[in-house]
Amino acid sequence: MIESAVELWRDIIGKRNFDEKYYDFKEADLIKDRLRLPKDKSILKGLKKLNISLEEFIEVFFEANSSYTAMMNDLLNMFQEIGAKQTDVNLEISFEFDKNQPLTIDINNFKKQIERWKLIEKEVLISGATDIREYHRITGELLELNFPIQLNDNEREYNDFIIDLETTDDNEFNELIDKWKIFLNNFVQEVMKYGTDKASLAASSRKVKNNVHIELGIDRWPYQIHSQLQQITIKFDTLGTKNQQYIIKILDGFLNNIGVQITTIKERVKILDDYLELPFWKKRYELYSVWIFSQIYDVIKEHNHQVHVLDGKLSFPFKETHLATIYSDNNKNIYIYCEKRTPINNPIGSGRTKNIQPDYSFYQEPLSNVNSSILEIECKQYKKPNNDSFAKALIDYSNGRPKSQVFLVNHGEMKASNVISKAEKLESNFKKERCQLFSSIYANSTELYTFRSSIKGILFDNKVFSQSSNIEIQLIWAKEPQDLDLSVRCLDINNNTMGTVSYKNKNFEGMTFDTDIRTGSGPEEISLIAQENYTYVVQVENFSKEIPLIKSEAKVEISVNGQSIKQFDINSNDIETVFWKVCTMKTIFLDEEKLYLTWQD
Asked: Domain 463-600 classified CATH 3.30.70?
């Protein structure tokens, strides 16, 4: 039976497929941070040094792996939507992680497993609902037992406070103390969202009304109780049975009254052990590429599409498979494949000899022609970032699909400029303009929006024109403010600013600013002839500021050769600023005549 955090952690890293150095380093860093373990030591060494309770460790472990929960939830949502649209029976999902033993599960059982994980989180993550009256009550009762409040005036900031309490000979009391420590740790993290000391918390209280955490944080009520409990734990074994039982009753009642939940430590260890034995936990790295498809699905689901379910089963066989089709009114359907294999001459990537086989390929007809690919997505989850492998993948996929955009998606961190630089050294003719790199892509990642927007831009918002096309950008607005200013900033392939066209500088690199309107309504216009591999950032400034920009009814329209192709309206729900970043427009020269245009708002 596991009885300590050290024993449990040894079990996790030894048998449960947790790699704190590489694959799971983000989760490991969060565990160290929440438990205040040394950052330069392994978790095991940190747990040995500090007296971390098993209860507290399990709670933090689940919190650190919350992105796994979110990933599974994304998959469940996708499977439920596909099941509702494609079949009347209970949808089955098949994952061929192992060719000899594919994992097949129906959607109801998949849902039950995820709900079980969520239930464990609820059982482990202590709620600690707060009621100020309860804090008054317990401090008063402990004062009557001659345990005064003793705060260290030198430790004014919450991030300096050390949560330390002695262990006693009474197991019942120790369990309550463990619950208190977990609650106090949660409380500190919640309070620090608003400030780390009395002054910053007071400032937050003027913005966030009736927040109990802020009110308690300002008066340091939990720390007052903690100072009393520090004295009690030191003397507890000498207090006598009557006083000990009274203190246990007080503390137990207090924790129950403020909403602290608990299951026994044995139950939690058993639940955690059972879950870490599930195949989805063991194969969570391999499941990453399937989760990437759920992000693709989020982009295509609002359009006329079909995910191909055969005999009530959706399969991810990790071999060439036609997964979905996006239907188009102009007979330019897009066919989505996983692991689509095509030949390539002289690949340089390790493991590739005669073919390439990206994770996801997006083709238009004819399907037998590699020039029909418009987008390739390759998913990476290396143990350690490897610029050489990243660069070689970009080279092989961009050469093997010569008209396609190539997205390289990595679960961990990846410095795009280093990878591009490496690819250029490996191949002088490397087409970096057709390659985009996305790092730190995982469930709830801040980078997800950019990734999905980029997919949307390629599949639905792109246009192909002649390179000599005239692109016009026009701004109109209401009578007020009287002076809004349109500008376009030009970036090179490395996102360095080349120059800006506005009323201040009316000409640059094929761009021309027309008329500066200072009496309301507009229009202000900028026209341009696109330059190869340039990015154009369109922006509006509220120069005169008579009214907020969000109330200006501003609209920006993009036209090509006089034909409107895109319109952007300012959102009245946006946060008020002086500047409105309208969109980022990117140009790619496909050949000697054609220009590929896409954008992100």
From this structure: no
